[in-house]
Write a structure and sequence with these properties.
about 325 residues; alpha/beta; Rossmann fold; 2 domains
């Protein structure tokens, strides 16, 4: 694993948007009493006239953002993913997606990153809900470097989007931000020939760790990073699946209608490809710190390596 990173993706978002906001005064940040959790206090201090605080009112947050977008502003709406993707989903569907307003919905502390706060604050369903809404991009960066590229793109994009961010700093996947990055393309992290790990968000580093562990066993595991769930790079998914014939998808999300489902939809008409979905099961996720929860559900690098070796031995 790479040297431990101490910079969260949210801190990178603040840096990118502060710089973009200085150049473009139409860029606004809206909060539902969430600027601290979003690590956006420096933006608010630097650009106070480009901040709107609506309080704990996520539905209003989305509708106000849509109204500002109609007036030519470029709003970024920050709220915990568990509330943004549930409590305000009608406003997301109608005011943002259906109305095609240039609103960027930033779901902070996504997945199980709220840890001990448990089921009420976990967002294990946000991909499922948002990817089913037409006209809405669904994005999730793997690390701080990809976050930088993604939000540089979003600062200039005219499309509505939902972006999930985790809460804490995560290990690096890329070596720097000097990467050839396109928002709608999957990114090959490690090339392999025996089995393919396809992962999204914080699970990408775990898949990379698994691939590195499998080298010692003589197993070559490919790792594909899906940072855009919609639009979805079906071509890249199909290419790696046909190459290895064995696919394990990894996501910090419900087993239903997330990355695993998107891959299965892509491979449905293919023959001779086996797929295993590693995700959160159909139950209230356990409360605990992210590493504990990842380990418990087999989302960590060690568990994935064991599963990969088992699959190669059984089906390879």
């Amino acid at each position: 694993m790479s040297e431990k990173n101490k910079i969260s993706n949210s801190q990178i978002v603040c840096q990118v948007l502060t710089e973009a906001g200085q150049a473009d005064r139409d860029i606004l940040a809206l909060f539902s009493d969430s600027r601290g959790s979003a690590k956006m206090a420096p933006f608010a201090a630097e650009l106070p006239e480009q901040v709107v605080e609506v309080g704990i009112a996520e539905q209003n947050l989305v509708s106000i953002s849509a109204g500002l977008a109609h007036m030519g502003k470029r709003p970024f709406a920050f709220s915990p993913a568990c509330f943004l993707s549930m409590r305000s989903i009608e406003q997301v569907k109608v005011d943002v997606a259906y109305s095609h307003t240039n609103v960027k919905l930033v779901g902070i502390s996504g997945g199980i990153s709220y840890g001990a706060l448990g089921m009420s604050h976990h967002s294990a369903q946000d991909f499922a809900v948002t990817r089913a809404i037409s006209g809405l991009q669904v994005l999730c960066p793997a690390d701080r470097f990809e976050t930088k590229k993604m939000f540089e793109y979003l600062a200039h994009s005219e499309e509505p989007a939902y972006i999930r961010l985790g809460r804490n700093a995560v290990p690096d996947c890329f070596e720097s931000d000097e990467i050839d990055w396109e928002f709608d393309k999957a990114h090959m992290m490690i090339e392999g020939t025996d089995i393919s790990f396809i992962a999204i968000g914080e699970a990408v580093r775990q898949a990379m760790d698994a691939s590195e562990k499998l080298v010692a066993q003589g197993i070559s595991a490919e790792v594909l990073n899906i940072s855009s769930l919609k639009p979805f790079d079906s071509e890249a998914v199909l290419k790696t699946a046909l190459k290895t014939g064995l696919v394990i998808t990894v996501e910090e999300h419900s087993v239903y209608n997330g990355l695993g489902a998107a891959v299965a939809e892509t491979l449905a008409e293919e023959t001779g490809i086996r797929q295993k979905i590693v995700a959160l099961p159909d139950e209230a996720p356990m409360a605990g710190e992210s590493p504990e929860v990842f380990k418990y559900y087999g989302l960590d690098g060690e568990s994935l390596a064991s599963l990969g070796a088992e699959w190669v031995e059984k089906y390879g």
